[in-house]
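quick one before i forget lol
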Amino acid sequence: MTLDPLALHGLPVLVTGASSGIGRETAILLSELGARVVLAGRDQQRLEETRSRLRGEGHALEAFDLAESLDALPAWIKGIAGRMGPLHGLVHCAGVFQFLPLQMCTAPRLEAMFRVNVMSAILLVKGFRQQGCAAPGGSVVLMSSAAGIAGQPGISVYSASKAALIGFMRSAALELAPQKLRINCVAPGVVESEMSVRSREALTPEQFQAIEERHPLGLGTTRDVACAAAYLLAKTGRWITGTTLILDGGFTATQRM
């Protein structure tokens, strides 16, 4: 019998943003690795579609709007752990992207993006670390972005929100370590997904081509990102915390230092 270091047999993992894109693909991959996946998102019908693609049994749906119920997140996590058992992992894929040049910034737009991309992550981690909510060796993966590391015009607010996740993660890793819990970020470049389709529609063909050319290995796939999250959740990531795994086809390597 060959030992699979990526195996997650029977382990409960919560995936937010599981109704589409990276979140959906992550949920599918984790089910293929044997996990019992809790699918979280706003759209019940799309979550049902994701569940229909999962392997194995014991999966669950949690239709929940993270941005609208921030204060309720710790109690929500506790309820999930009560039903599924202490969580082995949390993969926070829910997030929003918007082209927002500085001259168009307003306080409500700033707040809306930070509520989803940053504040929900912090309160989810607060909930995960509660007594009885996380299993020993539990792991959190936050979905940051290469945009939080390398600059690009027109997305400074989005970049700030993704950089904030990295800063939060590094300090949170030190707070969680005494509980033997780990937390890391994944920072993807542009991947082929529903979000990239919306980005393409907001740009001229020349502008999007320029973005593609800044990825020497080409654009990634949602499965590329899902594999990185699985690596950090499984035994392969046992000794990894407080770090950011960049997978961007070389995007950040093209940036001037």
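fyi The chain has one domain: 12-245.
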